[in-house]
């Protein structure tokens, strides 16, 4: 998200309520010094924060504090006035364990007069010690408090829910700017939402499926050594190349990766098979779209499914091409049989693109490349949050979550946390009781309704207990896991 389009959220509160700890939690780094002594933060701190894909700039105002209690309210109000200029939302932090103090009440009275939206944050709310302060906080007249423990990362889902109505609209502005930047060729290469460059296409498959022959055919030259002996390619090779789509006449840049490298001739087929899998795994790291090449004379074997599963686990877009189609016997039966076996063996991604090709004659190769660009578009797609939640509400209405033991499972909202592959986070309560079948229902709905039919989709379930740490890579409370994507 371009920096100038990021909303600014300011953290406000009396000394020692945990503002710096919350700031550190939101930015994911220990940028602010945290100490039990009030006033330990000397400077205003700013950082880039992210909550379940929602990005914003957060400002820590703890530097306004000092030990002079008499001057503090006036100073805080004056400094808050300055900081709120240009702010899009404020987090007013209280200490739930300490309860509401006169200074909290004074700050709240003033905040009720400002135009900037305020989200009340009841910090240190872990356990029962904060219950009384949480109830007291309703009297501040600032709406429902978001109970959190900044120190332990608890309750951040409630914080997201409080902030989203006030700053969520910035996402649309960011999407518009990203589209404009793509048109003029701007963008950070390291940004997952940057404009797409050359298609990074890896060709994988068991030995002698015809990978090198296929690439030679695409390039129109004998760039890679080919021969009847499995394992003849010694090194992993990437070739930059431009393909002209015969349908549109448009030239498209491709980086082809041949993955047979590092394989040695082996007398034992089993050893060769293991090596071929290792090579495929290594090449997948560099690819966006992976073509798994099958041998029409051998059909689909267990080793092929093993490679395909690994590609999907790594989150890459996958296509299947049946090579040597020019010498295939009973072609229609073979094609339908492979389709059925793929749908059964890779049930997490039904309907993978399947092509009949011939490296020898060139049959089907242009259609395969055209589809590779299309599937990369899906793999890189971001769904606007409003459209995503409209689908989510419809999906819940059409098939409400079950109520095991009479207790309802509540799914609250969904956000897209990333692309390449598409990653989604669903927030809710009692998620540990949600059946796997319902998780599959959500994943299948995302695929069918939102345009992700043939790419791996990750859906992670987060309960309010500790969603923040989980979403930052800490393992998560409940997750569908990559093998379900």
From TrEMBL:
<dbReference type="InterPro" id="IPR032859">
    <property type="entry name" value="KH_dom-like"/>
</dbReference>
<dbReference type="InterPro" id="IPR015946">
    <property type="entry name" value="KH_dom-like_a/b"/>
</dbReference>
<feature type="binding site">
    <location>
        <begin position="13"/>
        <end position="20"/>
    </location>
    <ligand>
        <name>GTP 1</name>
    </ligand>
</feature>
<feature type="binding site">
    <location>
        <begin position="323"/>
        <end position="326"/>
    </location>
    <ligand>
        <name>GTP 2</name>
    </ligand>
</feature>
<dbReference type="Pfam" id="PF01926">
    <property type="entry name" value="MMR_HSR1"/>
</dbReference>
<keyword id="KW-0690">Ribosome biogenesis</keyword>
<keyword id="KW-0342">GTP-binding</keyword>
<comment type="function">
    <text>GTPase that plays an essential role in the late steps of ribosome biogenesis.</text>
</comment>
<dbReference type="InterPro" id="IPR016484">
    <property type="entry name" value="GTPase_Der"/>
</dbReference>
<dbReference type="GO" id="GO:0042254">
    <property type="term" value="P:ribosome biogenesis"/>
</dbReference>
<feature type="binding site">
    <location>
        <begin position="205"/>
        <end position="212"/>
    </location>
    <ligand>
        <name>GTP 2</name>
    </ligand>
</feature>
<protein>
    <recommendedName>
        <fullName>GTPase Der</fullName>
    </recommendedName>
</protein>
<keyword id="KW-0547">Nucleotide-binding</keyword>
<dbReference type="GO" id="GO:0005525">
    <property type="term" value="F:GTP binding"/>
</dbReference>
<feature type="domain" description="EngA-type G">
    <location>
        <begin position="7"/>
        <end position="171"/>
    </location>
</feature>
<feature type="binding site">
    <location>
        <begin position="60"/>
        <end position="64"/>
    </location>
    <ligand>
        <name>GTP 1</name>
    </ligand>
</feature>
<feature type="binding site">
    <location>
        <begin position="258"/>
        <end position="262"/>
    </location>
    <ligand>
        <name>GTP 2</name>
    </ligand>
</feature>
<feature type="domain" description="EngA-type G">
    <location>
        <begin position="199"/>
        <end position="380"/>
    </location>
</feature>
<dbReference type="InterPro" id="IPR027417">
    <property type="entry name" value="P-loop_NTPase"/>
</dbReference>
<dbReference type="Pfam" id="PF14714">
    <property type="entry name" value="KH_dom-like"/>
</dbReference>
<dbReference type="InterPro" id="IPR005225">
    <property type="entry name" value="Small_GTP-bd"/>
</dbReference>
<feature type="binding site">
    <location>
        <begin position="123"/>
        <end position="126"/>
    </location>
    <ligand>
        <name>GTP 1</name>
    </ligand>
</feature>
<feature type="region of interest" description="Disordered">
    <location>
        <begin position="464"/>
        <end position="485"/>
    </location>
</feature>
<dbReference type="InterPro" id="IPR006073">
    <property type="entry name" value="GTP-bd"/>
</dbReference>
<dbReference type="InterPro" id="IPR031166">
    <property type="entry name" value="G_ENGA"/>
</dbReference>
<comment type="subunit">
    <text>Associates with the 50S ribosomal subunit.</text>
</comment>
<keyword id="KW-0677">Repeat</keyword>
<comment type="similarity">
    <text>Belongs to the TRAFAC class TrmE-Era-EngA-EngB-Septin-like GTPase superfamily. EngA (Der) GTPase family.</text>
</comment>
């Amino acid at each position: 998200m371009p920096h100038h389009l990021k909303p600014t959220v300011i953290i406000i509160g009396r000394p020692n309520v945990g503002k710096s700890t919350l700031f550190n939690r939101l930015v994911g780094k220990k940028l602010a010094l945290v100490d039990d002594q009030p006033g330990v933060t000397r400077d205003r701190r700013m950082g880039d924060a992210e909550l379940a894909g929602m990005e914003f700039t957060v400002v820590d105002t703890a530097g306004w504090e000092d030990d002079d209690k008499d001057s503090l309210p006036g100073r805080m109000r004056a400094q808050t006035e300055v900081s709120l200029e240009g702010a899009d939302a404020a987090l007013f932090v209280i200490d739930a364990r300490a309860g509401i103090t006169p200074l909290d009440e004074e700050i709240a009275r003033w905040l009720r007069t400002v135009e900037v939206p305020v989200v009340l944050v009841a910090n240190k709310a872990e356990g029962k010690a904060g219950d009384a302060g949480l109830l007291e906080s309703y009297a501040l007249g600032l709406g429902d408090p978001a109970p959190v423990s900044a120190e332990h990362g608890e309750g951040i889902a409630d914080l997201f829910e409080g902030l989203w109505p006030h700053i969520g609209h910035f996402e649309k502005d960011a999407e518009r700017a990203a589209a404009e930047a793509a048109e003029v060729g701007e963008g950070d290469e390291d940004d997952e939402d940057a404009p797409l460059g050359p298609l990074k296409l890896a060709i994988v498959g068991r030995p002698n499926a015809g990978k090198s022959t296929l690439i030679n055919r695409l390039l129109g030259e004998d760039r890679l050594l080919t021969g009847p002996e499995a394992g003849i390619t010694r090194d992993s090779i990437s070739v930059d190349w431009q393909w002209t789509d015969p349908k549109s006449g448009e030239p498209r840049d491709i980086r082809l990766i041949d993955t047979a490298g590092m394989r040695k001739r082996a007398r034992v087929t089993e050893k060769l098979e293991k090596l071929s899998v290792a090579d495929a795994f290594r090449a997948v790291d560099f690819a966006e779209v992976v073509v798994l090449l099958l041998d029409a004379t051998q059909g689909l074997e267990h080793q092929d499914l093993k490679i395909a599963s690994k590609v999907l686990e790594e989150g890459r877009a996958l296509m299947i091409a049946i090579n040597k189609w020019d010498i295939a016997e009973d072609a229609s039966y073979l094609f339908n049989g492979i389709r059925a076996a793929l749908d059964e063996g890779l049930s997490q991604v039904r309907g993978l693109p399947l092509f009949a090709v011939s490296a020898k004659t060139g049959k089907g190769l242009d259609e395969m490349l055209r589809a590779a660009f299309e599937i990369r578009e899906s793999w890189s797609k971001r769904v606007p949050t409003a459209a995503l939640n409209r689908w989510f509400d419809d999906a819940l209405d059409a098939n409400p979550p079950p109520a095991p033991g009479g207790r309802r499972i509540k799914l609250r909202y969904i956000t897209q946390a990333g692309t390449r592959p598409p990653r989604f986070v669903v927030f809710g309560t009692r998620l540990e009781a949600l059946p796997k079948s319902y998780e599959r229902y959500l994943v299948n709905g995302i695929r069918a309704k939102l345009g992700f039919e043939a790419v791996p989709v990750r859906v992670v379930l987060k309960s309010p207990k500790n969603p923040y740490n989980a979403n930052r890579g800490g393992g998560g409370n409940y997750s569908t896991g990559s093998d379900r994507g």
